[in-house]
Amino acid sequence: MKPVITFNKLCVLKTIGFLLILCAANMSIMAENAATVKTKFVETGGRKIAYRSIGKGTPLILANRFRGNLDVWDPLFLDSLAKNFQVITFDYSGFGLSTGKPPTDILGFAKDVKDLAEALKFKKIIVGGWSFGGFVAQIVTTEFPEIVSHAVLIGTNPPGKNALGIEPIFFEVSRRPSYTVEDEAILFFEPKSEKSRRAAQASRDRIAQRKTDLDVRIPETLWDNYTKGGDDYFADPYTAREKMQQTKIPILLISGDHDVCFPIENWIALSRRLPTTQLIVFPHAGHGPQHEFPELTADYINNFIQMSK
């Protein structure tokens, strides 16, 4: 005789099935974080751009620093941003896992962002950038304003001529073959602060959580491409400095009070002529404040975006 499934038993089975499906969906969502998300590729303009994407919402494309690949971002910073945005990191053309001819001027780096956004079918993006990536983000903002709703600049310099330059120690440490935690404390944190040095180790540990699907290191043969791009940026044939003073796009600048690479004083000198730019300066912090204060930095960015729509 076959067993009879009563109405109550059927309801229980359906409920269990629903809970299992819900649990699997939640596990899938939880698995999609900066330390585990898979690298993807999009083909555009005859080359493939490597990128990673987490979160949902308005797309936020982040341009990277000198020698930076997909693996150098602090995952806690990206995961915190991904609570409110679709966060996309990528490799420039010919850098890391991306193919194609590496750019040699800052406009070429900026076109990577534009091409990536168009290939992913984004009509509007928030463009962000750290350090050299901040140069890129500003050129995207001034050359392709039709695709930019907001700009977020971290540890970077204004375009054109600036009064204060890079400290010599940055040139010395940034070109070492690989970075120790002490090197990172000098480059991205405030080595005079014990709290900042501890944050350097914590950030390094978080970045090391990614074990598989790793990017490739940026070879020394490409380092001069950043220099050429930077020289082009500071020569400013694009009149980006003037355009930054005329733009209507909301811009958020985040910096440490002791940035060995791009001193905040260069922005303060220009700030009264930047009608849409807001400055946030972290005390006792260096060139990578989003690694020292990942969650707070993400909160500042989210609040700025929400309040300036």
Name its key features.
alpha/beta; Rossmann fold; 12 helices; 309 residues; 41% helix
Q: What does it look like?
A:
- By secondary structure, the protein is of the alpha/beta class.
- It has two domains: 7-36; 38-307, 3-Layer(aba) Sandwich (Rossmann fold), CATH 3.40.50.
- It contains twelve helices and eight strands.
- It has helices spanning 7-31, 75-81, 106-119, 132-143, 168-174, 181-188, 194-207, 223-235, 240-244, 265-268, 289-292, 294-307; strands at residues 40-44, 47-54, 58-63, 85-90, 125-130, 148-154, 251-256, 277-282.
- The protein has an eight-stranded mixed beta sheet with strand order 1-2-4-3-5-6-7-8.
- α2 packs parallel to α12 (294-307) and α6 (181-188) crosses α7 (194-207).
- The chain is globular, with a radius of gyration of 21 Å.
- Residues 19-30 have low confidence and may be disordered.
Q: Cα distance, first to last residue?
A: 67 Å
* Helix content class: 40-55%
Strand order of the largest sheet: 1-2-4-3-5-6-7-8
Count of folded domains: 2
In short:
By secondary structure, the chain is an alpha/beta fold. It has 12 helices and 8 strands.
